[in-house]
Specification:
about 50% helix, 5-stranded antiparallel beta sheet, 2 domains, single chain, Alpha-Beta Plaits, 3 helices, alpha+beta, about 200 residues
Length: about 200
């Protein structure tokens, strides 16, 4: 005699077998396939960490180099000195006149202009006009830039002067604005003149 088949139990057994098979396939995928992806991710992260360490070392080396440059500049500043608290105007203009005459220039005029104040800095400006040949003017300007004074040519205008019949080259008139710098102190007058 044949036994009666219980279909609902067989269906449940088949479903449980499918679930167990799906779990086994998932486990195999996680352990084998996913592990390869994880290893690749770990390798990529290790490379990123290595690159970040290299970047940090490079940045630290650049920072140390900049600190060395800063220390050198500060030492250079300490050797050259600080801004004077009072500008030696007479001494500067005597040296400037000597330089102009040495380069064959004639001094037409010089007079003070209004002073300018900046935070901790006083700029005393002077109009200065000389006449001579263009090469002599260029040498004169180079000499101004090489002086030991805290001075600078802040404005320059060169015009063609009158041509003399006996002169080989044309004369030029140079109008300069010369700025003399000093540290601004509480007792420094802002309209200090001279020259």
């Amino acid at each position: 005699m044949r036994a009666k088949v219980n279909w609902p139990v067989r269906i449940i057994d088949a479903l449980c077998g499918c679930v167990v098979a799906a779990c086994l396939i998932g486990f195999v995928w996680l352990t084998m396939v996913r592990e390869n992806h994880t290893n690749a991710d770990i390798g990529r992260l290790k490379r990123l960490i290595h690159q970040a360490r290299q970047d940090r070392l490079t940045t630290e080396a650049a920072s140390q180099e900049q600190h060395a440059v800063l220390a050198g500049r500060q030492a250079e500043l300490a050797k050259t000195g600080r801004l004077p608290t009072e500008t030696p105007i007479e001494t500067y203009f005597q040296a400037l006149s000597t330089t102009a005459l040495r380069h064959g220039l004639r001094i037409v005029k010089h007079h003070p202009l209004s002073a300018r104040q900046y935070p901790d800095l006083l700029e005393q400006r002077y109009a200065y006009e000389v006449t001579g040949s263009l090469p002599d003017l260029v040498e004169f300007l180079k000499s101004i830039e090489n002086t030991d004074f805290w001075a600078d040519v802040s404005h320059l205008k060169v015009d063609r002067g009158k041509r003399r019949k006996d002169a080989v080259s044309d004369e030029r008139n140079a109008a300069l604005t010369i700025s003399l710098f000093s540290a601004l102190t509480s007792q420094t007058p802002s309209d200090k003149g001279g020259a």
